[in-house]
Design a protein that fits this description.
The complex is a heterotrimer of chains A (199), B (808) and C (104).
Chain A lengths: L2 H22 L3 H21 L3 H25 L12 H22 L14 H9 L28 H21 L8 H8 L1
Helix pairs in contact in A: 1-2, 2-3
Chain B lengths: L1 H17 L2 H28 L7 H9 L8 H33 L10 E9 L11 E8 L2 H24 L7 E8 L5 E5 L2 H20 L3 H19 L6 H32 L4 H8 L21 E4 L6 E4 L5 E4 L7 H5 L1 E3 L11 E4 H18 L8 H4 L5 H10 L1 H11 L6 H22 L5 H21 L3 H28 L17 H15 L5 H19 L5 H25 L6 H6 L5 H16 L13 H7 L4 H6 L1 H9 L1 H24 L5 H7 L1 H8 L4 H21 L11 H6 L6 H20 L6 H23 L1
Antiparallel strand pairs in B: 1-2, 3-4, 5-6, 5-7, 6-8, 7-9
Chain C lengths: L5 H21 L3 H25 L4 H33 L13
Classes of the chains: A mainly alpha (199), B alpha+beta (808), C mainly alpha (104).
Chain lengths: 199, 808, 104
């Protein structure tokens, strides 16, 4: 019972239970809060896996950004007292079956990977940064899988991830503009109808 | 420019004079141009008729094409066209005979090539190589020989006379409104309809074209096309007054009975095609009948020449066929063969067949079936027993139609074809033909004794005379039979036209019992009809005598040579007596004695010149068409000698003994025929003119016989019970397949229900089920987001499962 | 089970994934569906980073990819919320069961 293992079990249990609560809660605001906890748990998992930058990024972006967005959405689409949208038991059963089946399948597949040990060194943030700048040597030290036996893979050149970085930046800009356009204020013809419904 | 025009005209004339047979093609095509013009005119007029009040252009066209009354210009054009055809035919005939007599003095091999041409209409398969025949090859062509030239002239001249006659006879149809007194509408009035002048000449022109095409055709396929066309025209013309139930039924009957014959014709055609590979008459004759000498001019044994070679396959060597006189195989002769094997009596005939280079064999019984099949077609067309029931009913058509189609030409087509494909017929088939002819002539003559409709008597007389022709062809009298065809055409057309003049003069009265004493009122008609009657009876030196006498002579020769078939000699003589009786009965009842219907007699009048001129022309022909240099002897007929030049060798070679016997006893035959005719005529004179005895007492004494004859030997009733009723019952039973059990007035609901019990329902059921399946499938796209997501995830799970478990 | 290994993280990722799938399938609120999508994306991220840690081949690439996914998920959440707001403006409700205008 090493420390990482114990830590993992604690964090993983918390994350899993929060995720389950997201599903099972009927109230949408409570669901959002449980999602918040799940995301925090995932971030802690990242820290456990030695990906500090990623964990921090997760906290900033998801917890600080996306969850705020979600809560905003919940509040903007509120209809008086929050409606409890009922779901039939049949649907619970069907979805549950599928989910359980999928889980079993995924676990079975996961067990096929064996139990490899973790790498000696973790990735530094500086390496990440250099990679995004296009200056990292992203080659693995071990042989690349996929080549047939007896054949030496060709020497890999230095490569970086500058292009994906730029693409994602542009993508964010586009998303910003698009979302702003989609959600712009329009002449609200549905509001009198909404007022009648909720009264 | 004038020079080029003259050159063009000269080149056109050269086109004709290079192959004078093309005159005949032109003469055949003239009536069809009249047909097309009438069709176009009438068609355009009826198309613009609904618009004539609103559109000025439509009104212009409508009144240009005749307006409310039928335009007579079309009829005049058709008459002019057929008259031109007649002129061309006569010119062609003179040309032909001229060249033929010149050719005899200095033979040129291209003579027949100038009077025959053909072209391939359709062919499938390779034509290269001399021994290769394509799989299917249909040819169209014409070939003029003596028989064709003479018959062509006959058809065109008679047609011209009849066209001229119709211009007067069908005058009623030029009115805008015609009242048909024989059609009773539910509210007890007579039918009023528009005049149909143009339609008459339309179909008559088409008929002339088809008949002429039949005459000049050189292959069975073209004959068949014309065969069907004349049948169709006959249908339209019999059903000219189609609002009359009797007329439309008669038209149906004619067409259907003809069709039954055509079924046999088709069987014959199929057999001929399969084994001979050709439809051409000359080629069939060449393949089937052994020629005098082989390809190398070496003579063939004389007892084989002209006969159908029969043989049996030898048991020990199946490749070889031994020639015997009673073999079960018939041998087909190739183009190039050696006479040597024929002398030895053993020929080599391997399988598979190489038709053009080696001897081929076919089962002999199939040859008989082919002959019987083609004869069945001819029997249908020429109204022989058992297919004779349509001809008397065909008298529902206007009288010129009866004259042209059902007396002179169409019914003659059957006899003509028997004459043309004569080499195809085996002796057994010829015997069948003879018996059918003999039986027909007797039955029809007996029925004609008691008919009281003027046209029915003539119709049965036609059937009887056709029986004479068939009998003659069956017993080896090829020339007499076809000569009788020629003479009969003229005097029967004359008789029908005269009857038409009588009917016209009496305002469409056809019953003999209401006529009498009309010779005072219609002298020309009476006189010409008397000439016709004398000709048909066989009065010496009238045209009918030459042919009839020879027929009876030939039949007597046959009966004496083969005493087993003496009936074939007795029946025509008895028939001659009956003919004499009923024809004179007809003439005497119409033209002599006291008028039995005073009202009709009062209003009777002679016909206008358009109608009496054809009568006179035809009377001249009936009198003298068969005259020749030795006109006191039946064989002395000039036309007969011309026809004899077209006689196939098979006749003389196959019936040599019979012809010899006929020559020996020809005086006896002539005497018997004349005696029988005299007996018949004198009985008729005694009964109807001199009033020596009372026919009515005979009728009362033998009521059963009288009724039997009057009801046409109960043929119609027999066919009705045997064939018509069972067919109709079968049709009703089968129609239940298609009846749907829908509630009345609820047709839509029946469409929506699945009802596989009827054929229509079964097909609808397929569509209906597809529709319902589609409706169900539509529900997959429910629009519910969650369901889509569920399906998406389910698919992903399944794919992942497949990938991870089954593949990895 | 004596040591923390790849399988643990993969199982956790699988569980989160199945929760996300359940969420998408079950929730009638459109924003609930969006939450399910977030769960799925995060589970995938955990897988990426776990493989980055435990496999010598994808040390760097796993984390880079996970970062990309985070960024893109954020963008996608923004657009999705814009759509949901539009839907709310037109139908006055976020119940996706009412979004059946495109049924066949």
């Amino acid at each position: 019972m090493t420390l990482p293992l114990v830590l993992f079990f604690v964090i993983a249990t918390a994350t899993a239970l929060s995720a389950l609560a997201v599903v099972c809660t009927r109230n949408i605001v409570r669901s959002a809060v449980w999602l918040l906890f799940t995301l925090i748990g995932v971030s802690l998992n990242y820290f456990l896996l030695g990906a500090e930058f990623l964990g921090a990024a997760q906290l900033i972006i998801y917890v600080g950004g996306t969850m705020v967005l979600v809560v905003f959405g919940v509040m903007l689409t509120a209809q008086g007292p929050f409606l409890q949208l009922k779901i039939k038991h049949v649907e619970w059963a069907v979805a549950g079956t599928i989910a359980v089946g999928l889980f079993a399948l995924l676990v079975y597949t996961s067990l096929q990977f064996g139990q490899p040990s973790e790498n000696e060194e973790t990735v530094q943030v500086s390496t990440l940064g250099m990679a995004f700048m296009g200056a990292a040597e992203a080659t693995p030290r071990a042989a690349v899988t996929g080549y047939p036996e007896g054949m030496t893979p060709p020497p890999r050149t230095r490569m970086g991830y500058l292009l994906p970085f730029e693409i994602v930046s542009v993508h964010l800009l586009v998303v910003l503009i698009g979302a702003a356009y989609l959600a712009r204020a329009k002449r609200r013809r549905a509001t009198p109808q909404a007022a009648e419904e909720t009264s | 420019m004038i020079v080029s025009l003259i050159e063009w005209l000269y080149s056109q004339a050269m086109w004709f004079s290079h192959t004078p047979g093309r005159y005949y093609v032109l003469a055949t095509l003239l009536p069809v141009t009249a047909f097309l013009l009438l069709l176009l005119g009438g068609g355009i007029r009826s198309l613009v008729r609904p618009l004539r009040r609103t559109e000025p252009s439509a009104r212009f066209l409508y009144y240009l094409l005749g307006g409310d009354r039928p335009l007579r210009a079309g009829a005049y054009f058709a008459t002019v066209a057929i008259a031109l055809s007649a002129l061309l035919a006569i010119v062609g005939l003179i040309n032909y005979l001229d060249e033929y007599s010149a050719q005899l003095q200095s033979p040129t091999p291209t003579y027949y090539a100038r009077w025959a041409e053909n072209t391939t209409w359709a062919s499938i398969g390779p034509t290269a190589g001399e021994h290769q025949l394509p799989a299917v090859q249909l040819k169209l062509g014409y070939r003029i020989d003596h028989l064709t030239a003479i018959l062509f002239a006959m058809v065109t001249v008679i047609s011209t006379c009849i066209f001229l006659f119709s211009l007067g006879y069908m005058r009623d149809e030029t009115e805008e409104t015609v009242t048909d007194h024989e059609v009773h509408l539910p509210d007890h009035t007579h039918l009023q309809r528009r005049g149909r002048y143009g339609r008459f000449f339309l179909f008559l022109s088409l008929f002339c074209f088809s008949m002429l095409n039949l005459l000049i055709a050189d292959n069975l396929f073209q004959v068949f096309i014309s065969w069907e066309l004349v049948g169709v025209c006959s249908y339209f013309l019999i059903g000219f007054y189609y609002e009359r139930h009797s007329a439309s039924t008669a038209a149906n009957k004619a067409f259907i009975v003809n069709r039954i014959g055509d079924a046999g014709f088709l069987i014959g055609l199929a057999i001929v095609w399969s084994y001979f590979g050709t439809f051409n008459f000359l080629e069939i004759q060449g393949k089937l009948r052994c020629p005098d000498s082989d390809a190398h001019r070496k003579g063939v044994p004389v007892q084989l020449a002209g006969t159908i070679l029969r043989g049996e396959r030898m048991a020990d060597q199946p490749r070889l066929v031994q020639l015997t006189s009673t073999g079960s195989l018939a041998v087909l002769i190739p183009d190039h063969f050696h006479a040597g094997p024929l002398e030895k009596g053993i020929i080599d005939s391997p399988d598979p067949l190489e038709r053009n280079s080696q001897f081929a064999v076919m089962p002999y019984w199939l040859l008989i079936v082919a002959g019987l099949g083609i004869f069945l077609g001819c029997a249908g067309k020429s109204a022989q027993v058992p297919l004779q029931t349509w001809l008397p009913d065909a008298m529902e058509g206007p009288t010129p139609v009866s004259a042209l189609i059902h007396a002179a030409t169409m019914v003659a087509a059957g006899v003509y074809l028997v004459g043309r494909v004569y080499p195809l017929f085996t002796p057994e088939v010829l015997l069948v033909i003879a018996y059918v002819g003999a039986i027909t002539l007797f039955i029809a003559a007996s029925i004609a004794l008691v008919q009281h409709d003027i046209k029915r008597v003539l119709a049965y007389s036609t059937v009887s005379q056709l029986g004479y022709m068939m009998l003659s062809l069956g017993v080896g009298g090829w020339t007499p039979g076809l000569l009788h065809l020629l003479t009969h055409a003229f005097f029967k057309a004359l008789l029908f036209l005269a009857a038409g003049a009588v009917i016209f003069g009496l305002h469409h009265q056809q019953d003999l019992r209401k006529m009498g004493g009309l010779s005072r009122k219609m002298p020309i008609t009476a006189f010409t009809m008397l000439i016709g009657v004398l000709a048909i009876v066989g009065t010496p030196f009238f045209s009918g005598w030459y042919s009839k006498d020879q027929i009876i002579g030939q039949a007597l020769g046959f009966g004496l040579t083969y005493p087993k078939h003496l009936l074939l000699a007795i029946l025509p003589i008895v028939g001659a007596g009956l003919t004499g009786f009923y024809m004179f009965r007809l003439w005497l009842l119409v033209f002599t004695g006291t008028p039995r219907d005073a009202h009709a007699y009062e209003h009777a009048h002679e016909s206008p010149w358009v109608m009496t001129l054809p009568l006179c022309v035809l009377a001249i022909f009936s009198l003298g068409i068969a005259w020749g240099p030795q006109f006191w002897s039946p064989e002395g007929s000039y036309v007969g000698q011309l026809i004899e030049k077209s006689e196939p060798d098979a006749v003389v070679l196959g019936f040599g003994k019979v012809i010899h016997a006929a020559h020996e006893h020809h005086l006896l035959a002539g005497g018997l025929a004349l005696a029988a005719a005299l007996v018949g005529v004198s009985i008729a004179l005694a009964a109807y003119s001199l009033r020596r005895f009372d026919i009515a007492r005979w009728q009362a004494a033998l009521p059963g016989v009288h009724r039997f004859l009057e009801r046409k030997w109960y043929f119609d009733e027999l066919y009705n019970v045997l064939l018509v009723r069972s067919t109709v019952m079968l049709a009703f039973a089968l129609s239940r397949f298609d009846k749907r059990t829908a509630a009345p007035g609820d047709a839509d609901a029946a469409d929506r229900r699945v009802d596989p019990s009827s054929l229509d329902g079964a097909f609808s059921a397929v569509g209906l089920l597809m529709h319902r399946a589609g409706l169900r499938l539509r529900e997959v796209q429910s629009g519910l987001l969650r369901r889509y997501v569920l399906v998406l995830i389910l698919t992903t799970v399944v794919m992942f499962a497949i990938l991870s478990i089954l593949i990895a | 089970m004596t040591e923390l290994t790849l399988t643990h993280f993969l199982v956790l990722g699988a569980f989160l994934f199945c929760c996300g799938v359940m969420c998408i399938t079950i929730k009638r609120n459109a924003i609930g569906i969006l939450m399910g999508v977030e769960l799925i994306l995060n589970s995938a991220n955990i897988n990426f980073v776990a493989f980055a840690r435990f496999s010598p081949t994808f040390q760097l690439e796993g984390q880079i990819f996970a970062l990309m996914v985070i960024v893109l998920a954020a963008g996608e959440a923004a657009v999705a919320l814009a759509i949901i707001l539009n839907f709310y403006n037109n139908h006055a409700t976020v119940d996706v069961d009412r979004a059946e205008d495109l049924k066949g």
